[in-house]
Write a structure and sequence with these properties.
The chain has about 140 residues and is α/β, with parallel strands linked by helices. The chain has 7 helices and 5 strands; from the N terminus they run ααβαβαβαβαβα.
Length: about 140
């Protein structure tokens, strides 16, 4: 009887509390990516697979001048500053993956949050943005 009482207080012993806290923090860190409802970050290889095999819509959210200087083939352009008022233009693509492109990948998070908030479930940000795409010598078009 006494040993079961001792086992019951195992977690309450001061020398074990640190281990219990570490275990809880570790579990939360492992579960956080599954709980977080953000866009998935993808590298250029995964982006190409999304475009070629899953018919992803490439959404370039850079400024107008940056888009004109060069963008991915067949991409659609909506500047990140206008995404909240213009997201309805891509509503027909809700079931397709959306690949968001920005200069360095940082400001694409705002656009992805707007899309996710409005029911888009397959939103992806290109890690490193257009800069990474160019460094990989992947196709760029100018209009």
């Amino acid at each position: 009887m006494e040993s079961s009482l001792e086992q019951g207080h195992f977690l309450l012993r001061i020398e074990n509390i640190l281990f219990v806290v570490a275990a809880i923090v570790s579990a939360l860190m492992l579960l956080w990516p599954m709980v977080r409802r953000g866009a998935k970050e993808v590298d250029t290889r995964a982006a190409i697979k999304l475009i070629n095999h899953q018919d992803a819509l490439v959404l370039d959210v850079r400024d107008d001048s940056d888009y004109i200087e060069g963008h991915l083939p067949n991409s659609m352009h909506i500047a990140t500053e206008k995404i909240e008022e213009r997201w309805v233009e891509i509503q027909k693509f809700k079931e397709r993956p959306i690949l968001i492109i920005y200069s360095s990948g940082i400001r694409s998070h705002h656009a992805s949050k707007v899309l996710i908030k409005n029911g888009f479930t397959k939103v992806h940000n290109l890690m490193g943005g257009i800069d990474t795409w160019k460094r990989a010598s992947l196709p760029i078009v100018k209009r």
